[in-house]
Amino acid sequence: MFNKYLVFVSAGCLISISGCGTIAEKTNILSDTDLTNKAAASIGYAPADVKLVNKTLDGTNTYFTVKSNDGQVFNCIVNGGNILTMGMTNPTACTKKS
């Protein structure tokens, strides 16, 4: 009896966890301007000197690329900005693309 209950609870947890990523992606509230501003602050440029090249949503993470006016390209990631995180984000991390 206990094993059947454990299997049922485990299956329910897995289903709900897999749905969280979809919910996070569909409720992402970070605009392109938000991402550009966050990246600029992370890499030490003025927001006007950075342009968003592309972005991809994956669960609670937003992966995006920015290009500065001087031709530097940076890959960035920010976690949060959706209903699951109540709109809050962790600091944006950017690395220079080689």
Sequence-ordered SSE layout with sheet pairings:
Elements: H1 2-26, H2 32-43, E1 50-58, E2 61-68, E3 73-79, E4 93-96
- Strands in their spatial order, largest beta sheet: 1-2-3-4
Helix tally equals 2
Report the average pLDDT across residues: 84
Give the helix level as a range of percent: 25-40%
CATH class: Alpha Beta
Got a strand count? 4
SSE class: alpha+beta
> What's the N-to-C terminus distance?
57 Å
Q: Segments where pLDDT lies below 50 for 5+ residues? A: 6-18
Instruction: Please tell me how large the radius of gyration is.
Output: 18 Å
Strand content: 25-35%
- For this structure, the CATH topology is Nuclear Transport Factor 2, Chain: A
Number of domains: 1
Oligomer: single chain
Query: What kind of sheet is the major sheet?
Result: 4 strands, antiparallel
CATH architecture: Roll
Overview of this protein structure:
The chain is of the alpha+beta class and 98 residues long. It has a single domain (2-96), classed as Nuclear Transport Factor 2, Chain: A (Roll), CATH 3.10.450. It has helices at 2-26, 32-43; strands at 50-58, 61-68, 73-79, 93-96. β2 (61-68) and β3 (73-79) form a beta hairpin. The protein is elongated and about 40 Å long.
Task: Name the features.
98 residues, alpha+beta, Nuclear Transport Factor 2, Chain: A, 2 helices, 29% strand, elongated
